[in-house]
Amino acid sequence: MKNLTSITKFSLSIVISLNFLLFLQGCKLFNQVDHHAPPTKLDKISKRFDHYYQGHIQVPGSKEIVKTYVALTGKQREQGLSHVKPEQMSNQEALLFIADSDMLQYFWMPSTHFDLDIFYLSKDLIVLDIQRDVPHFPQEGPRNLIPKAKPVFARHVLEMKAGSPLAKKIVYGAKLIWKSESSLEQILLSIRQEK
């Protein structure tokens, strides 16, 4: 009986010692991380669009995917890409403005920091019109100097950085493919139900 007790105590002391060593190793790894390091480019991007619904659009004729933020609220739609610095948005990202009916779409560029390619889309995400290299304008005004895109009758609008290799692959008549757990119709329905 004594041998069994001493073996049990010995085993228990080994388990405790191993747990303590693992704990110390974890502390060592934790302390090697610089918790005061400046945010990375990806951190800045994700924080800027934290409160946006996110999905993906597949570029037609390829397997390439554009990470897409959906402007749902009035504030998100009004702000668009104003005040977004070039390092806050990559060439593989886009902002999608969705609507539940076709309308004349007006876009202008106050407080923007990079040129845009703007794609006007049908209900089924067919590209109806494209305006490339719409110039940025980093100030709020004067209003008469702020660049404006020509108004286009469309359902949805997609904005990407001008010159993005993925944006260049999107052409007139192409049908973009929405990839998300929810369809655009489901997203619009949820917005209507929240009102």
Account of the protein in words:
The protein has helices at 2-32, 41-48, 74-79, 165-168, 184-194, and strands at 53-58, 65-71, 93-97, 103-105, 116-121, 127-134, 152-154, 156-161, 177-179. With 195 residues, the chain is an alpha+beta fold. The protein folds into 2 domains: 1-35; 41-194, Protein of unknown function DUF192 (Jelly Rolls), CATH 2.60.120. The strands form 2 sheets. Strands 6-5-8-3-2-1-9 form a 7-stranded mixed beta sheet. β5 (116-121) and β6 (127-134) form a beta hairpin.
What's this model, at a glance?
By secondary structure, this protein is α+β, with helices and mostly antiparallel strands. The protein folds into two domains: 1-35; 41-194, Jelly Rolls (Sandwich), CATH 2.60.120. It has five helices and nine strands, in the order H-H-E-E-H-E-E-E-E-E-E-H-E-H.
The description of the largest β-sheet is: 7 strands, mixed
Pattern of helices and strands: HHEEHEEEEEEHEH
CATH architecture designation of the largest domain: Sandwich
Mean pLDDT: 81
Q: CATH H level of the largest domain: which superfamily?
A: Protein of unknown function DUF192
Query: Which residue ranges are poorly predicted, with pLDDT under 50 across at least 5 consecutive positions?
Result: 17-45
Strand order in space, largest sheet: 6-5-8-3-2-1-9
Note the total helix count: 5
Task: Return the domain count.
Answer: 2
User: What top-tier CATH class of the largest domain fits best?
Assistant: Mainly Beta
| Terminal-residue CA separation | 74 Å
Query: Might you state the CATH topology name of the largest domain?
Result: Jelly Rolls
Structural class: alpha+beta
Total E-strand runs: 9
Strand-residue proportion: 15-25%
Helix content: 25-40%
Tell the overall outline. globular
| Oligomer kind | single chain
Taking all Cα atoms into account, the compactness measure Rg is: 25 Å
